[in-house]
Amino acid sequence: MRRHLSSAGPLLIEATCNQVNQFGGYTGMKPADFRELVHGIAAQAGFPTDRILLGGDHLGPYPWQNLSADQAMANAGEMVRLFVQEGYGKLHLDASMPCADDPRPLPDAVIAERAAKLCSAAEAARGSGEPVYVIGTEVPTPGGAVDETGISVTAPEAAEEALRLHREAFSACGLDRAWERVIALVVQPGVEFAHETVEDYARARAAQLSALLDRHPGLVFEAHSTDYQRPEALSALVEDGFAILKVGPALTYAMRQALSALATIEDECVSAANRSHLCERVEQVMLAHPEHWQKHYVGSPEQQRRLRIHSYSDRIRYYWAYPEVKQAIEALIRNLENSGIPETMLSDYLPAQYKKVRGGTLRNQPLPLILDAIGNALDPYLAACAGK
Predict the structure, then answer these.
(1) Which of 3.20.20.70, 3.40.50.1110, 3.40.50.2000, 3.30.230.10 is the CATH number of 11-246?
(2) Helix ranges, 173-219 (H)
(3) Angle at the Cα of 282 (from 278 to 287), degrees rounded to 5?
(4) Which CATH architecture fits 251-381?
(5) Nearest Cα to 386, choosing from 241, 235, 228?
(6) Largest CB tally within 10 Å, which of 52, 258, 343, 369?
(7) pTM summary value
């Protein structure tokens, strides 16, 4: 919010269906709770709430795939209703995942029919507002890919077929007016990140897909997993019609890098008895609660240990809110506020921030340093979307 404050336009912040739902998701938050969290941060940052656009990502039966389709869709409909009721204005309707009694893979027509049912639930819940919709899926399961597999650009024919099926399903449910508020289709433009590699955007590969937008005025593509793309690639994506760029792990990865660097500095500046031991605490918690990383990180114990810290998937992000980890972060910040951070060590471990500190544009304090590291990861997105 601080980074975007001086820019124009809205700030889109989304919650995924397994993070936030009527049962609390893995964050423990319902849609109203997440809205209040975001607005509370806005108040602290001085960011106008009327510039915040809240969204729901992958809204569908994903959290309840172990249930029958009827049960899972009933839960998904209630979730969508709550998102709309609490003022979320952008909804990605994603019913692509098969439930316990579904055939695999799920037929495209069934996916479209279920998306239309979710739209019906949203339209029934809305008051005077008019939410906009995103349809389709060409991405890994919410939370990140499990396997490091090759990717391919969505075929224009497949994108056209997805649009046709969804448009027909919406019309069959009496949702022609709502269809006018479908603003984007999720596609795969050929970008993805694995645990230790990034698939960079190559606009030549996506040229035919981009050309499809010429036949659909007012529609754009939404690109997920754009984390870690080079700044020039992000600008090219926007220019080519992939106007909604999703980013998440790249920001939390930058936060982890800053915290790790500060923990290393703390080891040199604070006595052993008083140190936060942040890195050790995080490792202990991840080993005690492996459910957020175990199925994602395979290999030898040493490979898993490395990935727990350094994977682009950044599964470590699930652990920052654990009480013992939060306490360690607070101790780290407090210790370095008291001891001070030598410029020499800042130069060694946070060189980008060191330049700003020397230039007088950044305070040499733990929290400003962490926020600046996150902001540096976000800046290319702000630049790519500026004025678009």
Answers:
(1) 3.20.20.70
(2) 176-179, 207-211
(3) 150
(4) Orthogonal Bundle (1.10)
(5) 235
(6) 369
(7) 0.92
